[in-house]
Input
Amino acid sequence: MVHTTELSFELSEDKTIVSSEVSYYQNPNLKNKSNFLFLNGVDLELISILINGVEPNYKLVKDGLELSDLSAEFVLKINTRIHPEKNTSLNGLYQSSGNFCTQCEAHGFRQITYYLDRPDVLSVFTTHIKADFKRYPVLLSNGNLIESKPGEVTWHDPSLKPCYLFALVAGDFAVLEDAYTTLSGNEVALKIYVEAHNIDKTQFAMDSLKRSFAWDEQRFGLEYDLDVYMIVAVDDFNMGAMENKGLNIFNSTYVLANPETATDKDFINVEAVIGHEYFHNWTGNRVTCQDWFQLSLKEGLTVFRDQEFTSDLHSRSIKRIEDVNGLRTFQFAEDAGPMKHPVRPESYIEMNNFYTFTVYEKGAEVIRMIHTFLGEDGFQKGMKLYFERHDGQAVTIDNFISAMNDANDFNFDVFMTWYSQPGTPEVEIKTNYNVDSQSYCVTIKQLGEHTYYLPIRYGLLNDQGGEVDQGVLVLSEREQSYHFNNLEHEPTPSWLRGFSAPIKLKSDLTLAQRIFLIENDTDSFSRWDNVQELWLLLILKPDQIDETSLFDALENILNNVQDPSLVCEMITLPSERFIHLRVDEIDVVEVKRKREAVIDQLINRFGSLFLNIYTNLNGDDDHELTPEAVGARSLKNICLYYLTKAGKFELAYDQFNNANCMSDRLSSFNALLSVNNPYKDKAIEKFFETYKKDVQVMDKWFSAQSLSPMMSVNGIRQLMKHELFSFNTPNRLRSVVGGFTQNFVQFHNQEGYELLTEVIIKLNGSNPQIGARLVSIYNHWKRYTPELRDLQKQQLESILAIDDLSNDIFEIVHSALK
Ligand code: B3K
Ligand code: ZN
Output
């Protein structure tokens, strides 16, 4: 165990020295005492190692250092040299645009110095930083600044923290400053550091940060604990952001936003990620994970919290639809692939491969079910008890569940299947109405091997759409029946409202009932969910559905728009990626052809209605972020997309030229790139000339082209030679190569695969974490048509055969080939 950690950094272009002075002590609860200690360390040059001024007994081994003959308590001083200037992995200490920054979760700290790099080793950190004042005027670390002169500072963080929450930043930044007074009256200085040219894109992030502070006080009763909260935006970052104590480091995409450069979605994402990292201060930092298998303890819970934050501030129903759509597209796919794992995984080769949709998004669904069972009050009682018991500790998911259990006297034993079993549960509902007894019998059956404890939110509607009953059925057994009495007519049931459990549900709803629900259900999610099922049917099994009745219902909805966002979601067809999950064998060309055929039907039937809606909504826009304004823009822009596909290119080009916010500009740009037309190339050039200096907007420019149906493998190779393409900047690589892998018809062929494999092999040497994300594209190879299946398999085999394959990529490829 560690009492205190004192770090000194001497930063320079090519010679960075890290000195650490750590006071270790033996865990008093340890049964088998030992005088041996293993410290993690990767890619470090050891300069000196001392205990009490003397070199201890030590041995350098793979990925660390072994110490022996230790006493029960000692202070270890280690000097190492590291090379942030050459670090392209973006883990540990590295440089982005010349500035220094760190990323330590999960195992980055061991690339900084030899240490007990595990989340349950908590200590108080003091950090000294020295650097050339002219090049690096801003020197930051966690906690409070206790000493400062030009080129030399000391930070002290009074809170106990594991090393994965350590952060350091050094560089030339502009800062936006503000303050927040907490409920108990403490003033917190808020600072957002960005490269100087980005300072006019920081106000929204600051406002979001203040909203996060206020929301966590109001909804969870949680206040911030230090005197300063800092956010630094960097362009080179592997993920979205990192919740380091008091010093968040962000992918600049999730900080920088103004109406000229950010879409409505971008704004809401910035706010959500700022919120997410802030909420980690309690769920993650003050109470952290005992080991990395507990990752969902902090991530599932914090995602649930950020989802609630967005839902409270914007449209709850749209947020739910987007989240469920994401869950079903990405997490359900993970569950159906070779890397499937429970919310609490049981093993890993490379921990960074387990920051997954399962741990995050399914983890959040599991928390949401707990919330559904206990209600807001019971849930908050559980949270309170959790913090009372565990503030300042590193704990397990079981500890969290016990707090929920004890605060509410609610038994979660059967519920724990959600944490231990991988895969998506399947549930079947059958109904039977008895006219004579006026009773409605519902039988619910769990089809899979395991029994889950789960809530099914439902409503029963009469023929006028009136609600005759609603509530939550709690399923805890393999099969359960429920009886609803005194119903004069057979009701239309609305199942799994709000997607109350992350399951695949088969019900005996008829087509007519689904069509009734899309028009009449009081639950927006259910309206969307049912229309999605009908779209899927129309795309995949058109002979089983009469599209006129579906289109008649949609016509009523389009003629009387109540909630424009919802209507936009309803007339958005399931993505190709989503459809791939619903076919026996993935034929990328066939799926696209069938989907496009339905789009054509939609355009034929509603072309003029779309034009009316578009014209009505296309007026003055002061780019407000209210649900109404966001909804109006989204509906207008999906109409524009369909109209462009129908040949109304001028409309899109007009909007492209006259748009006064990025939502409108980008929608028209994407529309112009979705089909061949005379304006496409002009738009690409103009967009580039207007925004070439803006990194965030250029990512959009690259990804719009990568996703265009006219893009070819050669075109991507050209884009990768573009002066603004940068292989070592993950955002840019994701826009170009990541984007292209989602351009299914263009990507899935030998040339496309060869390109991807080249990129992966290069990333294996430079940034294996990103390489592992990209190689996961091949995870579903067995589900493709035979030719593509064989080609993908060959790629996987050739990657497996390369020398020095990283753990990150090995783990994915190995499991895919198994
Ligand atoms: N905790 C970080 C993710 C770290 C990923 C490490 N590969 C961001 C977040 O979830 O808030
Ligand atoms: Zn998180």
